[in-house]
């Protein structure tokens, strides 16, 4: 451990971070197993966190977070909402260097995906987009990655209006049952694929980015002309995008599996 790290404080924070995992309420024994710490160490950490107001005991004896953490989460969420391009910048550039293809960054505005940053490929024939453009969530890898990880209510509400949305190409999905299967495949892979669904000559992959509250806040995508983006490249770039999205999510304050990304969270 680093020379200036206070071990007792570090262990106490490890116990606090354990509550980011479901079911978010634990007994001392469960915390000991989860943190792989001695039960006496966990007990002292819990007593410290209770005294500071971060934990409280519930009627069944299990421990849970108090509302005190909400103030911290709200503060971090406001900061994170403004810093997605900053958090993603170095990861976008690395992905661009690794693939040679266009890399896009999207945010979720509560209804649609919005392109907020773009590094275009230097190749003569390339995928391009427009910063500031809004996209419905049914077409395009960046949009579909967000859709796949929305909360169930928002997802269901979107699927309800799916048949009324435009078909950009013959491959655009507007059938709710078909989109539900696509969502399941996206979550199994950890990244979304757009196969000539928004543009008839473009294929792309994209992985979701999560904020401090655990909700999807955006996505990072890699795309190019279909003749270069064969199935093998889609898989390779999909995993690269997922790795980048996982790192960006951590910088955004997401406390969860540091995935290579979120396969069935």
From TrEMBL:
The keyword DNA-binding applies. It holds the Pfam family HTH_IclR. GO terms for molecular function: DNA binding; DNA-binding transcription factor activity. One of its GO terms (biological process) is negative regulation of DNA-templated transcription. SMART domains: HTH_ICLR. This is HTH-type transcriptional regulator KipR. Residues 70-254 form the IclR-ED domain. It comes from Calidithermus roseus. Keywords: DNA-binding, Transcription, Transcription regulation. InterPro entries: GAF-like_dom_sf, HTH_MetabolicPath_Reg, Tscrpt_reg_IclR_C, Tscrpt_reg_IclR_N, WH-like_DNA-bd_sf, WH_DNA-bd_sf. The keyword Transcription applies. SUPFAM superfamilies: GAF domain-like, Winged helix' DNA-binding domain.
